[in-house]
Write a structure and sequence with these properties.
This protein is of the alpha/beta class. 31% of the residues lie in helices and 22% in strands. It binds 5'-O-[(S)-ethoxy(hydroxy)phosphoryl]adenosine.
Length: 663
C-alpha cells in the first residue's frame, strides 16, 4: 500500500517528540469556560442531528427551521425551511443587543504606527453603506462578486455587504496572478469585482488593480469594479466601469434594510486546487455553514466574548480567513486583531509586539509560519510579554512535533493548550481537533473528531483499519458546513468526494488512530501539494510549465521540505528546437520559475526545476510520478520494472544535483 506518511515516522531525531504517549493533560483552569465538558462527545454523538439542531439556535433566524437534515447523497440540505441573513447575524444583531461599542476589529497595518479600531457600530454602518453602494452598482440576489483585496477592514465589509444582498462572494487570494484571477472570474461568471489599488508588503507596494485590468480583458461579463484606495499609487481607470470605494460607498445612506434568505441560499464560492489543472469552485450555503463555524469557534477557541482578543493570523483569501476571521468570530461577537502584513513587516519581532500591545489571548496560525518564527529564534519572542495568551491553534498541514513543542514552550509559556485543527475548504469548518480543557493533547495529533462529526480511517477497499494502522480518512455522516458542491460541476463533486468509498466522503488525506484511539493526520494521498499551507495541484503547475514556449513536457511532484512542509519539484523536457536557444540552463530555469509565478502565483514557483532529456514513462506512456517523487526526496527508487527505459530515472537522479535552482 502507498504510504506517503512513511518518512514522517522515521525522520531523524523525531522519535522522542513523536511519542504517541507524550500527552499534555487538560488544564483544570479551562473546564467549562465555554461550557465544554467531557460529556459533550457522548451527547452530540448519541444524536448528531439533535445536537446540530440545538447548535443552530446560536443564529438569529427570521424564520426558525423545522427540519434538520435532508440527505440524498451527495446532496445535503440542512435546516432547509429556515430563513436568515448572514450579515444580520454577524453585525446588526450585536448592535441591537447593546454591543455597538464593542471593538470588532483592531486593525494593524503592515508598517508599525498605523492602526484602526472598528466597533460593531462602525462595522454596522460600513456594511450598510457598502450594501447600498453594491445595489447602486447593480448587484442583485444570486449574483457573483469577485473580491481581490489586501487584508484591510474593507475586505471584511465587502464580504458582509455582498451576502447581505443575497449575492455570493468569490474571494481570490491577492497573491494570485492575472490569469488565475481571470479563470476564477470566468468560471463563476462574476458581474462585479471589488479590489484595491494595491497592497503593502514589508512597506513596499504590491499592485492589485493592474492584475484586475489585465484579467478583465478576458472577462466581458464584469460590468463594475469597486476600488479601495490603500496605497495611493496611480492606476489606470476605465470610466463607467471603475468606481472608487471612498467616492461611492461613503456617500451612501448608513441604513440598509436586510432581507432573509433561505438556509440553503448560496453564500460564497472559494476556489481550491484539486487533482486536475482546473481549480474547483467549492461553494457553501448559509444556515449549515454559519451554524458550524459559530459552534466550532465557540468550543474550539473556548471563546469568551467579553475578555478575549482573538487573532487568526490568516488571509481572507483562504477558507481559514472566511470561517475564522469573518463568519465564526463575528457571529460570536468576538473582538479580533486583523493584521495586514507579513510576519516580519517592521521586524522579526512584529508578531510579538502585536500580541503584547493588544493583549491577544487566542492565536490561530499555520505550522509553516510557526516554523519560520522558530527559525528566527526563541530569543525574539522571549523579549516580549506574551502572558496574555491563553490558547493557541494551528491549521493547514500536519504540524511537526518540534514546531508544536516550540509553540507550546516559547509562545504558550507551557500553559496554553494547543488546538491542532484539521479541516478543508470543502468541510467549511473545523472537523477534528482537541477541545481545550476537555481533551488531552499530543504534539502532532489532531486527537478527535469534533462533537457531532464522525470520522473513520479505512483501507483501499473501504474497510475500517485497526488502531495503529494508517489509511484513508473518510467522513461517514453529512455535517452542516459541508460544501454543497463544485460550482457548475455536480458530476465532478460526486466523483471526487463521494465515489471512492461508498456512502462516505473521501477527504484526500492519510490518517491513523494510534493505540490510544487518538487521531493523527499524515498528509495528502493524492496529487494535491501543500506548500506553506497553500493548496496547489501538481497538474496545475505542469500546465503552467507546458504553456511556456520552450517546454515540451513537465512532471511535477511535491517533495517534503523542512520549511514549507512540501516543496514543488518539476522535471522538464525542452522542445528540440528550444534546446540550443536555451543552452544556458540556469537562465532557462529562472525563466520557467518566473513563468509559473506569472501564470499562477509566486507561491507556485517550483523550488527546483530539473531539465532532463527524458521523463520516466511506463510502456503505456504514463509518466511515473511515484519514481520522480522518490528522486526528489532522495529515496531509494521503487519498482522500475514497468518503465520503458529504466535507466532514465537514474539519469534524472544524477541531474538533480547539477541542474537545479534553489532560491
Ligand atoms: C491539510 C485549510 C493536518 C489537509 C483549512 C487538508 C491539515 C488540507 C490540517 C485542506 C491539520 C489542514 N493537520 N493536515 N491540522 N489542516 N490540513 O482546503 O491535507 O486549504 O486536506 O483548508 O490541508 O486545505 P485547505
Amino acid at each position: 500500500m502507498y504510504r506517503p506518511w512513511g518518512d514522517r515516522m522515521t525522520e531523524k531525531g523525531l522519535e522522542a517528540l513523536f511519542s504517541e504517549t507524550r500527552q499534555f493533560a487538560p488544564s483544570p483552569d479551562f473546564v467549562s469556560r465555554a461550557n465544554a465538558h467531557a460529556d459533550i462527545y457522548g451527547l452530540a454523538n448519541a444524536d448528531p442531528e439533535g445536537w446540530w439542531r440545538q447548535q443552530a439556535t446560536r443564529l438569529s433566524w427570521a424564520k426558525e427551521p423545522t427540519t434538520t437534515l435532508e440527505w440524498d447523497l451527495p446532496n445535503a440540505r440542512w435546516f432547509a425551511d429556515g430563513e436568515l441573513n448572514a450579515a444580520y447575524n454577524c453585525v446588526d444583531r450585536h448592535v441591537e443587543n447593546g454591543l455597538g461599542d464593542r471593538v470588532a476589529i483592531h486593525w494593524v497595518a503592515d508598517q508599525p504606527g498605523e492602526e484602526r479600531t472598528i466597533t460593531y457600530a462602525d462595522l454596522h454602518r460600513m456594511v450598510q453603506q457598502a450594501a447600498n453602494a453594491l445595489e447602486e452598482l447593480g448587484v442583485r440576489e444570486g449574483d457573483r462578486v469577485a473580491v481581490y483585496m489586501p487584508m484591510i477592514p474593507e475586505a471584511v465589509v465587502a464580504l458582509l455587504a455582498v451576502v447581505r444582498l443575497g449575492a455570493m462572494h468569490s474571494v481570490v487570494f491577492g497573491g494570485f496572478a492575472a490569469d488565475a484571477l481571470a479563470s476564477r472570474i470566468q468560471d463563476s461568471d462574476c458581474r462585479v469585482v471589488i479590489t484595491a489599488d494595491g497592497a503593502f508588503r514589508r512597506g513596499s507596494v504590491s499592485p492589485l488593480k493592474p492584475a484586475v485590468d489585465q484579467a478583465l480583458e478576458s472577462c466581458p461579463g464584469v460590468e463594475k469594479v469597486l476600488v479601495v484606495q490603500r496605497t495611493r499609487t496611480p492606476v489606470e481607470w476605465v470610466d463607467g466601469r471603475d468606481h472608487w470605494w471612498h467616492e461611492i460607498v461613503e456617500r451612501q445612506d448608513p441604513h440598509h434594510q436586510w432581507r432573509a434568505f433561505n438556509a440553503e441560499h448560496p453564500l460564497f464560492i472559494m476556489y481550491t486546487s484539486g487533482t486536475t489543472a482546473k481549480p474547483k469552485g467549492i461553494f457553501h450555503t448559509t444556515g449549515g455553514y454559519l451554524t458550524q463555524v459559530a459552534t466550532t469557534y465557540h468550543y474550539v477557541f473556548d471563546h469568551k466574548p467579553e475578555t478575549d482578543i482573538c487573532w487568526t493570523a490568516a488571509d481572507i483569501g483562504w477558507i481559514t480567513g472566511h470561517s475564522y476571521i469573518v463568519y465564526g468570530p463575528l457571529i460570536n461577537a468576538a473582538t479580533q486583531v486583523m493584521y495586514e502584513g507579513l510576519p516580519d513587516s517592521g521586524g522579526q519581532d512584529r508578531w510579538w509586539r502585536i500580541i503584547e500591545s493588544h493583549k491577544v489571548t487566542v492565536l490561530y496560525t499555520a505550522p509553516t509560519t510557526i516554523r519560520t518564527l522558530m527559525k528566527w529564534g526563541h530569543q525574539i519572542p522571549a523579549g516580549h510579554d506574551l502572558t496574555s495568551l491563553r490558547l493557541l491553534g494551528t491549521v493547514g498541514e500536519p504540524i511537526n512535533p518540534e514546531a508544536w513543542v516550540w509553540y507550546h514552550t516559547y509562545i504558550g509559556g507551557e500553559r496554553c493548550p494547543i488546538v491542532d485543527t484539521w479541516w478543508q475548504t470543502e468541510t467549511g469548518a473545523i472537523m477534528a481537533t482537541p477541545l481545550p480543557g476537555v481533551t488531552a493533547t499530543k504534539p502532532g495529533a489532531a486527537m478527535r473528531a469534533f462533537p457531532g462529526i464522525s470520522l473513520e480511517v479505512v483501507d483501499e477497499q473501504g474497510h475500517v483499519v485497526g488502531h495503529g494502522q494508517g489509511g484513508y480518512l473518510v467522513i461517514t455522516r453529512p455535517w452542516p458546513s459541508m460544501t454543497r458542491g463544485i460550482w457548475g460541476d455536480p458530476q465532478r463533486f460526486f466523483d471526487t468526494y463521494w465515489n471512492r468509498f461508498e456512502g462516505r466522503y473521501f477527504a484526500g488525506d492519510g490518517a491513523k488512530y494510534d493505540d490510544d484511539g487518538d487521531l493523527w493526520l499524515l498528509g495528502r494521498v493524492d496529487d494535491v501539494m501543500n506548500v506553506s499551507g497553500h493548496r496547489l495541484s501538481t497538474t496545475e503547475v505542469e500546465h503552467a510549465l507546458v504553456s511556456h514556449h520552450a517546454v515540451a513536457e513537465a512532471a511535477v511532484v511535491g517533495a517534503s521540505d523542512e520549511h514549507t512542509g512540501q516543496a514543488i519539484v518539476a522535471f522538464v523536457t525542452l522542445k528540440l528546437s528550444a534546446t540550443d536557444a536555451e543552452a544556458d540552463h540556469a537562465q532557462t530555469i529562472a525563466a520557467l520559475r518566473q513563468h509559473v509565478a506569472t501564470v499562477i502565483s509566486p507561491i507556485a514557483k517550483p523550488r527546483q526545476i530539473i531539465l532532463t532529456p527524458e521523463l520516466p514513462k511506463t510502456r503505456s506512456g504514463k509518466i511515473m510520478r511515484r519514481l520522480l517523487r522518490d528522486v526528489a526526496e532522495n529515496r531509494q527508487l521503487g519498482d522500475v520494472t514497468t518503465l520503458t527505459d529504466p535507466t532514465v530515472v537514474n539519469m534524472i537522479a544524477g541531474l538533480m544535483g547539477t541542474h537545479s535552482s534553489d532560491d
